[in-house]
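Hi there,

I know you've been waiting on this one. I reran it after we fixed the sequence typo, so this is the corrected version. Both the input and the resulting structure follow.
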Amino acid sequence: MGSEYMSQLTDRGLQASLAASKIRFSFGIGSDYFSEIAKIRAARLLWSVVQKGFGLSESDSAKMDIHSVTSEWNKSIYDPFVNMLRTQTEAMSAILGGTDSLTVEPFDTAFRKPDEFSERIARNQQLILKEEAYFDKVADPAAGSYYIENLTNLIAENAWRLFLEIEGKRVFSGLRSGFIQNRLSETAAKRKEDFANGKVKLLGSNLFPDNNEKVLSQIDPDIVFKKHDYESELMIQPINCFRVSEEYEMGRIEQEKGAKD
C-alpha cells in the first residue's frame, strides 16, 4: 500500500520526498519474539528499496516511520492476566526491531472496556522498558546478531517475492478481485487449524486451561459478541480480523451460560 500511495501521489505531481515523508506505517506485533524483531527490520529494508525506485536516497524523508501496536490476535478472555506477558514481549520486540512509536494495549481490551488498573499497567509496561531496562539507550540493539540478521534477510526475501506478485496485479486490482483477501484467508484458516490441533498453544486457553474459571460477569457482550455487518455492495471486501481463541472461548462461554441457567 505504501508503494501504491507513492505511485498515486507522484502521478498527481507531488514530489517523491514529500510524499514519503507523509506516510506512516502501523504494524501489529505478535508474540513470536525474534520473528517480530526481524519483521520490522525487514520492512525498513524493503521500504528503502521501494524508495530508491522513486529516486530517493537514504535520507530522513525516505526513512520508514513505524508505529507498532501489540496484537489482538493472540489475546484471551480466559486467564486474561497472561495477556500482560504477551504484550510485554511484543513491546520488547517492537522496540528492539526499531519502531518509532508504540502502543501497548491493556490486557482486557478483548472482552471489555479497559479500566483504570489495566490502562495504568499498559503505560507502566512501556515505562519499565525505558526507565528500568534502558531500551532507549541503544540505537539498534539487534544489529550484528547472526540469527536476527539472517531471519531479517529471510523475511525480506519472501516478502519481496509476495510484493512483486501483488505489484504485478496492482494493489487495488488485487483487492477488488479478492486475491489479497483470499491469500490472507488461507493463512487465517491455517492458523485456526494449528490452534485447534494444538500446534499453536495459548496458555490458559488450549494449554493448561482452568476449567473452573468463570468469565460471564467480567465480559462486555457488546465487545465479545460483536458482529461485522458489512454491506454486500462494497467494491472491496473488508478483511475479517479475529482472535485465534475466539471459537474455543465461545464454546466455553456457552457452557458457562448453560450451567448458570
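Quick highlight: The chain has one domain: 2-260.

Best,
R. S.
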